[in-house]
Automatic annotation (TrEMBL):
The organism of origin for this protein: Jatrophihabitans endophyticus
NCBIfam families assigned: sodN (TIGR02753)
GO molecular function, one term: nickel cation binding
The protein's name in its UniProt record: Nickel superoxide dismutase
Signal peptide positions (record): none
Amino acid sequence: MRLLRTTTATTVAHAHCDLPCGVYDPAQARIEAESVKAIMEKYQGNDDPVFRTRALIIKEQRAELVKHHLWVLWTDYFKPPHFEKYPQLHELFNKATKAAGAAGGKGEVDPAKGDELLGLIQEIDTIFWETKQAS
């Protein structure tokens, strides 16, 4: 048994929750997206290269969190009946996660892109709360 432990590779798994907790809310993605937009605005108003470098790093981290929270909703909360009732939902999530990626990792610093991301999250939020009220 000891030999098996030393020759078997371990895999670390990360999840939203260790249990299927059922706690979901698009507000998590929205708050991170608001941070992304605010950083874009601050970046525009500051010429200090050190500040700008820090801002880009933090913006990318926040954008990754936006994508994470969207993926959790997309893959864990929404079920086939939701996608049947809201056929645009898959495309909406795809656009939102791509917008988060563009806002974060593609060097984008235009606050209008932050507004676009927030608008997509708002659409998801509206559908999310409609499904919560129906259940």
